[in-house]
Amino acid sequence: MSQRIRKPVARWLLLGVSISAAALLAGCGGGGGGGGDTSTSATTTSPAAATTTTSPAPSLVTLVTAPVSSFLTTEYKRQAGLAMINAATAWATGASGQGVVVAINDGVIDTSISELSGRLSGTTYNWTGDSTISIHATHIAGIIAADHDGTGIEGVAWSATLMSLVSFTTDGSTNTGYGNAPYSAISYAADHGADIVNNSWGSSPTASMPGALVTAVRHATDLGTIVVFSTGNDGGDQPNTTALVPQYDSATTARFLAVTAVDQNGSIASYANACGAAASWCLAAPGTAILSTGPDGTYVSMSGTSMAAPMVSGALAVVMSRFPELTSAQVVSRVLTTADKTGIYANTAFYGQGLLDLGAATQPIGTLTANAVGSTVTPTGTTTATSSGAALVSNAVMGDALRHALANVPVALFDSYDGATFTTTMDSLVVGGGTPDYAGQAFGDFGRGHFTTRGTAGGVSLALGERQIEVGAGAALTASTLSEDAVVAAVRLQLGEATTAFAGVNASLAEVAPAYDALPTEAGLALTAGAFTPGALSLADDGAVLGIDTNLGRGASLTLAVMNGSGGQAVDFLTRDGGAAATGALASFRQSIGHGITLEAGVGYLAEDGSLLGASGQGLLDFGRSETAQVSIGATVALSDKTALYARYDRAFTTASGNGAFLAGSQDVTSDSWTVGILGADAVVAGDHWGFSSHQPLRAGGGTMVLARPAGRTTDGTVYGDTVTVDLSGGGREIDWEAFYALPMGEQGLLGFNLLYVTDPGNQAQVADEVLAMLRYRLRFN
């Protein structure tokens, strides 16, 4: 540089002055600061570059989050610009610039002030030999990294490290660029590990582009360093020439940012040069009446694009610390993409890509997706938000077990825009599992077929009914939603004196199997779904049933049945067409031992595709095949020919494989259910029915799930993680207490009253108990 051009430095708004084409200067937005280390001689030659190495950075669980409200302090509010860029939202993610080095290419910073204590890097250089403290440089340093200590002010990136590069001299109120030092400083910063170089200086909009600047910027951006320039303070429609480097070398565009200033009302400041020709790589930030650090521990309010530029440099540092896995080019793109482009900020000629929104830059852009360990994150560059690619759909069997098991298991998801990593706990991926709709099931149960009394012809009996198809044991356990009506059909075929074949469509086992005829009441009168269906086989209930019941003699009988359920939908039993979720098989042996006592023992088998005891997965949390073995014991004690005690206990053991990349499988998952009750008939009038019962629906109470958990990604997009085993013991235990009474109304009608009290609905401990009372009229089909 052949001449030194001076520009006054003021505490308030500084307007631009015309300068020659080659001149660079500091000022509040138009030029740079001065001062330096007196032991360093003036030179225009950059020192030798330091050797640097880079390596992929882990990206998960290193940040400590906090509520946004915790940052809305008096210290925060002293600097209105922080609220304008939504800084508190970004800080709440745990990011504040930690691990990021921001070089200030300016004058001498007052390193003695407490606000900058611990923030200055040991790497520094002074090309000027000047030691005069620069108000301008010190002010910029505070905007970027003043301490978050509850006093004075705080910087945008209060955990960042500052590299002081002195390339401007300070003479009274004037800062002057020292030869080619401002260009050399850009290269030096990149060579010595700076992630960002803040340049609050520049030439006039009509100056020619210095070739040395283009070369320096290209060198820095090639090394991954982001270069930030202010647009200048001439109040013009075009920025300083120094903000237009990408016009002269397009390879610098991805890591170059120009910054204009807005006033306290959010409009472009009267002094600020607009983005103009730099619109594609330019954005706006607060620059008016910015309170920051001054020499000797003072605080100074200054205005200019010089103040807006460090707002952006600090924001870049925060985004870098939030997403260390992203490249510097992706960080720049993220900041530009998330800038506020609404209202006046849609005017690209003034505001470029909009007003800086640091909060939005640290939030997901587009879709949050799940990636398997070992896969590569492939960003789509889209900003449209959709649902995540992984979910666990809980149910009443699992209750709160899945959420409890996964509540403290962090997992990494990646947004579709640039693959930025977002940490959540895996319980956030659990959906469903809400309280079963007992009232809805009861209302939908009107018209249910009852098959106790059957007419026969030629050894064949047929019963028909109609009801909501998603009602019954399976629907209650999987929290199905009431849907369309469906025909309920049951048929029995007498095969000799001792054996009966039976089948049903959209019917439960208790409605179809002759073994349940021995109960002195109709199972369907109770609201408690599944109370008469053995345990895990409830998940295959209310679909298709096929079986035989045979009398073995001497008070012994055997029931063999297969069941195919799909949430109550009628399906082709053999092909499972229609999307059946579970197939079950049952062998139940009953023995009368006299005195009205019948003992029962049974074994069952349940096979599920894509679910675990009715809980299912989506995407990378998709279940494979699960298999359940079950044992059951029970007893019926006839107190009279019209009254009986009934009890049953079921214990099941499940193993599941995982289809989704997150799931390695589940082992030794235990579940149980039980029912105890007294049932009777003809208590008040002939044909009436009554009952009291206590029933625990099927509940998962133990076992483990093995997860291949993604924990983060490296800079090349490779997802890393570990294996986590979680305990599936649930906290809630649902107990259904029910009393019912049904009174015959003529030949076909039945008037019933039910009272149901449910504790821990859906096996969820935190859900309030429910009470349901119902008076209903039903019409029999015999």
Can you lay out the helices and strands and say which pair or pack?
Blueprint: E1 7-8, E2 25-27, E3 31-32, H1 74-77, H2 80-84, H3 87-91, E4 101-106, E5 125-126, H4 135-145, E6 161-166, E7 168-171, E8 174-177, H5 181-191, E9 196-199, E10 201-202, H6 211-222, E11 226-230, H7 245-248, E12 256-262, E13 282-286, E14 290-293, E15 299-302, H8 305-322, H9 328-338, H10 348-351, H11 358-361, E16 368-369, E17 390-394, H12 401-406, E18 410-415, E19 421-425, E20 430-432, H13 438-444, E21 460-468, H14 473-478, E22 485-495, E23 499-505, H15 509-512, E24 544-553, E25 556-565, E26 582-594, E27 597-609, E28 611-612, E29 615-619, E30 623-638, E31 643-658, E32 663-681, E33 689-713, E34 719-727, E35 735-745, E36 749-759, E37 770-779
Parallel strand pairs: 4-6, 4-9, 5-6, 9-11, 11-12, 12-13, 17-20
Antiparallel strand pairs: 1-8, 2-3, 2-10, 7-8, 14-15, 16-18, 17-29, 18-19, 21-22, 22-23, 23-24, 24-25, 25-26, 26-27, 27-30, 28-29, 30-31, 31-32, 32-33, 33-34, 33-35, 35-36, 36-37
What does this 3D model show about the protein?
With 782 residues, this protein is α+β, with helices and mostly antiparallel strands. 14% of the residues lie in helices and 36% in strands. A hairpin with a 2-residue loop joins β7 (168-171) and β8 (174-177). α8 crosses α9. It is elongated, with a radius of gyration of 37 Å. Mean pLDDT is 82; it is low at 1-24, 31-61, 446-455, 469-483 and 567-580.
Question: What is the gist of this entry?
Answer:
The protein is an alpha+beta fold and 782 residues long. 14% of the residues lie in helices and 36% in strands.
